Amino acid sequence: MKDNTAAISEIKRIIGEKSPKAYIRSFGCQLNVSDGEKIKGLLRQMGYSFTEDEHEADLIMLNTCAVRESAEDRVFGIVGSMKKLKELKPSLIIGIAGCMTAQSHIAEKIKKSYPQVDIVLGTSAISALPRLLLEALNGAKFSADISEYDDFSEVVEQVRDSSFKASVPIMFGCNNFCTYCIVPHVRGRERSRRLEDIVTEVCQLVKSGYKEIMLLGQNVNSYGRDLEDDVDFPKLLRRLNDIEGDFWIRFMSSHPKDASKELIDAIFDCEKVAKHLHLPVQSGSSEVLRRMNRRYTVEKYMEIVDMIRSRDPDFSLTTDLIVGFPDESDEDFQGTLDIVRRVKYDNIYSFIYSKRSGTPAAAMADGTSEEEKGRRMRKLLEVQREVSTEHYKRFVGRTMRVLADDTAKKKKGWLTGKSSEFIIVEFEGDSSLIGQFVDVEITGSMNWAVTGKIKG
């Protein structure tokens, strides 16, 4: 961790009593959201307050995603529109951070084509923000740091978006190099945080009243392999489970190639670990999985599912699926429909393949039309609706423990939350229950949620 004391003190001196406002917008995955919370933490140390209106901001930070080129195009469109804001308010400081800016050619493009941008910050350089911001306040036209650092900003106090749900990164980067994915190129190789630092953070969150702890990593199953200590992800789960308090633990994402028996045992043995596993399969074709460099087959994946179902036939599983990977045949796609029916996922997160420059898949031949890919996506969603409509019925008559997290959008006097199984539950209740655990007796089911009433 860099010593930012001098830079922060100087920024406070420059700011004085002005109390400038910062507008922070994070795109993409939950790791990006967590990074955005750290950016807010540093800015608060420097004397900034926060606003949801970019027009009243003195500082704008866009925390970007690079998974799809369309996400980059969207950010460039937003940055272009901010040229007018800069003209109206020349003192406005505009910064871009995140996965998108970790690519050197993107940083160079911003410098050349978007003069309204003052700061560019890479994913591993969050702790450089005070230095870059000080340079901007002192009149620098462009300041950038996209270096890869090993520190994890352990001492940065986060400004969390929720008072009862917290994300805790346990590792950064990825070693898997799936052929469609840019993440290893923008977040670097896998680096695990020290177990004791994670335990300390979770202990503090639980003492502060947080009820849900989401452990984050590109592949949490790889946690600890780069550490000298004898620690792995199942051991981390067991250690966190021993922390006193009323809370539960979630995690994502879990790569199937590393989903071990020890992991499954930990999920079932630890009462505070949520009874749900997000296990991205991506395709139901072993040939497509080979071209994706996923390093497991459909048969191997189903062995994991069978191991789980042998412990609990109704255990909740969700997944990611890519439709239309280069030269996906109709037979390949039928395999995807087959695995959805066999596994009976409670939910799927599905995407039509989007070519990503800089990845091996972008150079693969693809003879499947966009119309056909769209048809396949519609069919996949149709099959999943059929599966979930029937599968959700298993919850009717049960009592589910639910963390209430918001008011229901379409039902006055109702709340919504998620169960340990990561199932959306809607029920009548007062808004004072938001952020609390409640027991809900399930009386009805749909294809995306269940409904019920508070027990007792």
Blueprint of the fold:
Blueprint: H1 5-15, E1 21-26, H2 30-45, E2 49-50, E3 59-64, H3 69-88, E4 93-98, H4 104-113, E5 119-121, H5 129-137, E6 143-145, E7 165-169, E8 171-172, H6 183-187, E9 191-192, H7 195-207, E10 212-216, H8 233-241, E11 248-252, H9 261-269, E12 276-278, H10 286-292, H11 298-311, E13 316-323, H12 330-343, E14 347-352, H13 370-391, E15 399-407, E16 414-419, E17 424-428, E18 437-445, E19 450-454
Parallel strand pairs: 1-2, 1-3, 3-4, 4-5, 5-6, 7-10, 10-11, 12-13, 13-14, 17-19
Antiparallel strand pairs: 8-9, 15-16, 15-18, 16-17, 18-19
How far the N terminus sits from the C terminus, by CA atoms, comes to 50 Å
Question: What kind of sheet is the major sheet?
Answer: 6 strands, parallel
- Secondary structure tally: strands: 19
Point out poorly predicted stretches. none
Q: Radius of gyration, rounded?
A: 23 Å
User: Tell me, what's the shape?
Assistant: globular
Mean pLDDT over the residues: 93
Helix content: 25-40%
Strands across the major sheet, in which order? 2-1-3-4-5-6
Count of DSSP-assigned helices? 13
Keywords for this structure?
alpha/beta; 6-stranded parallel beta sheet; 5-stranded mixed beta barrel; globular
Give a verbal description of the structure.
By secondary structure, this protein is of the alpha/beta class. It has 13 helices and 19 strands. 35% of the residues lie in helices and 21% in strands. The strands form 5 sheets. It has a 6-stranded parallel sheet with strand order 2-1-3-4-5-6, sandwiched between helices. Helix 1 (5-15) packs parallel to helix 5 and helix 8 packs parallel to helix 9. The longest helix is centred in the last third of the chain and has 22 residues, at 370-391.
